[in-house]
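Render this sequence as a predicted structure.
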Amino acid sequence: MRKILDFFKKEMMLSVALAAAVASLFITPPSSELFSEIDWKTLATLFMLLSVLEGFKQENIFAPLLRRTARISGIKRLTCFFVYGVFFSSMFVTNDVSLIIFVPLTITIFKSAGKEKYILPVLAFENIAAIRGSLLTPFGSPQNLFLFSQSGISAGDFLGMMFPLWIFSFFLLYVFVSLLYKNNSREPVMQEDGEKLAAEGKLAQKEGALWQKKEEGKFWKPRRILYVSLFSVIIFTIVSRTNLWPFVTLAVALALLAFDRKILFKTDYVLLLTFLCFFVFSSSICKNPAVAAFLQGIVSGHEYLASILLSQVISNVPAAIVLWPFAGEGGLKALLYGLDSAGLCSIIGSLASVINLRIYVREYPGKSAAFIKSFTWISLAFFAVVVFPQLALIKFF
């Protein structure tokens, strides 16, 4: 019993989702109709993505890119490499996975170079990059995947809707990085008066060169080919909206079972169960006329504000599931813009931000308050710049 309680205490989002699902069943008793209205396609797609991207991490698909850090000399250039590495990779491997790939290496390199004073702001920039980079594609984040699946919008229209936010964020991130290094833009990565650090830097460069020589021509190993191929199939399944998704899901599961079954034990089933619970909650309250009418009146026409506020309580992924049934006609853009901006307001607003905090605290135990303070101020400053252009796009375009 103690282990169960500790598990639910650790996984607070799942605890909230489960409590909400159970409570909703008292509003609308469970039925076969309720079961059939759960978005099994989104759950299946999310399962495939989570499993295959876990394989990406295990096989170090991004290792050749990360090894190039040994060749970067200036601290501003190094920061841009990490920030935009997160920004672009998050479009394809989701925002949380991009942070899992880049954040640990960021901490390691800045720490070994004696640049720890920059770690917190750089991690905040990477967090923003993950949130704003991933918003461009339907599969960049779980909430995008869900809304893309539910809305029926084409992939081209989705990209066109999100591109203004993405390109504006691309340039704004560079402004923020430049402000951080406005007085020392040419500061080297290694301290000139630190012989030990310089030696470590030369060693890192040597190891990087040796690794590249060793790996040259060996990148496309069988498992890497498997995961890249499976990822391509998944993306096609999402974009094409094929009705064959159950067979694709089965094929992916069987491929993993045959060639790398341990990945199936590492898949984030907690996130999948959290999704399922919120699907049950959303479907149940929609079945109650009084509750549905009340929420419809609050959400319809106010999707942007509602999505940002609710995300600060239950995060943006479950907020998407809860709010979508009550969004008004034409409310998709406002909902997407709000959900993809909610993570800039607080650490709770996005699951990716929580993951970033966890990675930092593992390296710096007891320093969560410092992370939250730095993250909040920088992210709110970014949000203050983007909020009004986003409102203009919602209202006039």
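Summary. Confidence is low (pLDDT under 50) at residues 192-201, 203-212. DSSP finds 21 helices and no strands in the chain.
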